[in-house]
Amino acid sequence: MLSAMESPDASTLAAAVLARFAPEVGRAGRPFVLGISALQGAGKSSLAAALVEAAAARGWSAVAISLDDVYLTRAERAALADEVHPLLRTRGVPGTHDLALLASTLDALAQATPERPAAVPRFDKGRDDRYPQAQWPTVAGVPALVLLEGWCLGVTPEDEAALDVPTNALERDEDPDGRWRRWVNAQLANYAPLWARIDALVVLQAPSWDVVATWRDEAERPLRERGDARAMDPTELARFLQHYERISRWALASLAGRADLPIPMDEHRHLPEGWQPAPALR
Question: Model's pTM, two decimal places?
Answer without folding.
Answer: 0.92
